[in-house]
Design a protein that fits this description.
With 237 residues, the chain is an alpha/beta fold. 38% of the residues lie in helices and 22% in strands. The structure holds adenosine-5'-diphosphate and magnesium ion.
């Protein structure tokens, strides 16, 4: 991201964000509610247009008005706080929908791949279940698997544990940890500071749309340089 600005109704909610994410890196965005974390992820997924600056994916400027939005989104997986599974579809159909309809994968192949992902993440016996038959943690794991099914280059995870009861958070964090081990590149927002510290290669602190400070987790959590970062961490740790 190169000098990204985003305004809503004349108010700037992202103010010149510069951020580089390397392949296989996990980058966490932290900051108070309203600091611009979700907007930043939404800009990467082209759910929002940027007002200034540029975003590049694999060297291609995706914020170029001539960029093909569908092709960009096909390379990204995004998961939100609310799981957004299709309630009238089974787990298997939720997972295979995009590979089949957007990527043109044959049903048999899409289903084989979905079964593989479900077993990998401990949900092999849930393929035929409907979302309301699953716990919140299981639904969120299915939402992550659904995003993975299109084999994205980059995963964007926006507070994926915030809607979950504490005992269900662990199983979702475990799946993210495993994704990191498998080399997936991820940008995530989280309020789980312990997890953030544990999993991130880079931590970015946002305040009022400004990327105030970024660095490896040991530095951000033990020796933040900026007073605003220090104050935020004091309030949440
Ligand atoms: P965070 O995810 O860090 O809580 P957001 O990115 O959701 O922050 O929001 C940043 C700011 O942008 C907030 O002030 C929010 O009210 C504002 N905002 C986000 N989306 C919109 C929108 N679609 N229209 C107007 N304001 C918005
Ligand atoms: Mg948010």
């Amino acid at each position: 991201m190169d000098g990204v600005w985003k305004n809503f109704h004349g108010h700037s909610v992202l103010r010149g964000i510069d951020l580089e994410v390397e392949p296989h890196e996990v980058v966490s965005l932290i900051g108070a509610s309203g600091s611009g974390k979700s907007t930043l992820l939404r800009c990467v997924n082209l759910l929002e247009t940027v007002d200034d600056g540029a975003i590049y994916l694999d060297g291609e400027e995706i914020t170029d008005p001539r960029a093909n939005v569908d092709q960009v989104r096909r390379r990204l997986g995004i998961v939100f706080q609310s799981f957004n599974l299709f309630p009238h579809m089974t787990v298997l159909d939720n997972i295979t929908l995009a590979p089949r309809q957007v990527h043109g994968v044959a049903r048999a192949q899409a289903e084989e791949q979905a079964h593989g992902l479900l077993s990998r993440f401990g949900l092999a016996n849930k393929a035929k279940a409907y979302p309301d038959q699953l716990s919140g943690g299981q639904q969120q794991r299915v939402a992550i698997i659904r995003a993975l099914a299109t084999q994205p280059r980059l995963m964007l995870l926006d507070e994926v544990t915030s809607a979950l009861d504490p005992q269900l958070v662990v199983e979702v964090l475990q799946i993210i940890r495993e994704l990191k081990e498998s080399g997936m590149t991820m940008i995530l927002t989280t309020h789980e500071m312990g997890f953030c510290r544990d999993i991130s290669d880079q931590v970015c602190f946002l305040d009022g749309g400004v990327l105030v400070e970024k660095g490896p987790p040991e530095q951000i959590f033990t020796a933040p340089e900026q007073p605003r970062t220090q104050e935020f961490l004091r309030s949440v740790l």
